[in-house]
Amino acid sequence: MSQDLHQSEPFYDVNRTYEDNYEQGPFGAFAEALKRDEAAGGAESGSAGTPSDRSAASSPSEGEQGNGVSAPTDSFLGVPVNLAFGIPAGPLLNSRFTTAAFRMGFDLATYKTVRSRAWGCNPFPNVLAVHPRSADGSLTPGSPELDEGVFADTNYERPISISNSFGVPSQDPDLWQPDMFRAIAAAGPGQLLVPGFQGSRVEGMTEEEYIADHATTARLVKETGAKVMVMNTSCPNEGHNVLLCHNPLLVGRIAEAVKNEIGDTPLMVKLAYIPDDAALELMVQSTVGRGTVQGFSTINTISARLVDANGDQALPGKGRDRSGVCGHAIRGAGLDMVSRLAAIREKSGLDFAINGVGGVVTPDDFAAYKRAGADSVMSATGAMWDADLAHKIKASL
Ligand SMILES: Cc1cc2nc3c(=O)[nH]c(=O)nc-3n(C[C@H](O)[C@H](O)[C@H](O)COP(=O)(O)O)c2cc1C
After folding, report:
1. Which residue has a Cα nearest atom 3 of ligand 1?
2. Whose C-alpha lies nearest to ligand 1, atom 15?
3. Residue-wise pLDDT tens digits, 91-121
4. Alpha-carbon distance 181 to 179, whole Å?
5. What is the pLDDT of residues 308-346, one digit of tens each?
6. Would you say residue 313 lies in a domain?
7. Residue 343 domain-assigned (yes or no)
8. Domain that holds residue 86
């Protein structure tokens, strides 16, 4: 099984640094797709090309879904797309990655979370394979294993579960703005570039300044021509293991400031797993209920203590005893959040979109999220280790 995984080289190479991936990636089948695109007239890497260039570069199975002739039948935050399936914020570092994702049939490609300023990456390594104890490889929120220690190493196996520890790095806006512009222009017919962004908390910042930083970043994103955007509130931004989305009222105030900046551009909020229904309802009421947010993307990773074979801290460095687990292990938690959000939507009568994320590694996982109430679905870990996932899902429909 693990041999199988060696053959499908991930488009983000976990054996290289973030910086090398940014400069040299994507890899594997995504690199091949980019080469075909360039050969077909896409010219410079990351440049838009013409619509006919893009359909010429499409693979046959992509062409069946979205060859630029038939009208898109699905939508994401009101924007028509071929199939509302794609890759969430994370492994698509820049326009070369997002363009390759489009060419591989992922109709939603999220540009990795950007900030108002350049922000460094955690030291290498940033990814490890994780091996939960349970027979089905799942990790349940609240399980003692998350604190006792989850075994992590470099042996990547199917169904794939990993941990990622990046610290949400960002280029300076002077670099990411023109690159995001290129990424948006490179979408094929029925495809959509989804920008991700978040606020940055720096020492000495007041709460008002922190809120304003979100609004500034959203404005910078809007300037690139973004049709929609996703605001990340689900990373440890508020201090070690403290998440912004655990403070729904603050998210509400931030969403209001962002809305004032971006007007009618649809805004989605990225959430981590929230165990408490009352807190989730408060999140919905203080954002959607105030007309500032049109959807939620959920879940992000689940925090776990990572240990090596000796039971010692698996990732090197201070503050890295815990790290976020994603992939197959968190599928159940993601489905749970999506169905609870769908129940709140039903009960409240409020209208908002749900983007289901977490452990989608097969077409069956995609179908399970749709059944749970997701309007759209995304896969980060699953797509990294299976560049054909979008084609497989389309073939299964
Ligand atoms: C390599 C990698 C980097 C990630 N970086 C981000 C990020 O910058 N912003 C964000 O909101 N989520 C980030 N995520 C989380 C994913 O968007 C997603 O919520 C999570 O991985 C669960 O989905 P999965 O099980 O399909 O991987 C990252 C995930 C991975 C695998």
Report:
1. 90
2. 300
3. 999 999 999 999 999 999 999 999 999 999 9
4. 5
5. 999 999 999 998 999 999 999 999 999 999 999 999 999
6. no
7. yes
8. 2-123+161-305+324-396
Q: What's 331's domain CATH number?
A: 3.20.20.70
Considering only CA atoms, which of 168, 221, 220, 228 is closest in space to residue 194?
Answer: 228
Question: Does the C-beta of 231 come closer than 6 Å to ligand 1?
Answer: no
Is 192 inside a domain boundary? yes
| C-beta separation of 267 from 288 below 8 A | no
In a domain, 43, yes or no: yes
Specify the number of domains making up the chain.
1
Cβ(270) to ligand 1 under 6 A? yes
88 within ligand 1 shell (Cβ under 6 A): yes
The verdict on the CB of residue 379 being under 6 Å from ligand 1 is yes
Question: For residue 60, what are the CA distances in angstroms to 76, 168, 270?
Answer: 24, 35, 33
Is residue 288 within 8 Å of residue 294, measured between CB atoms?
yes
The pair of structure tokens assigned to 173 is 């806006």
Q: Is 137 in the pocket of ligand 1 (CB under 6 A)?
A: no
The number of the ligand 1 atom at minimal distance from the alpha carbon of 12 is 1
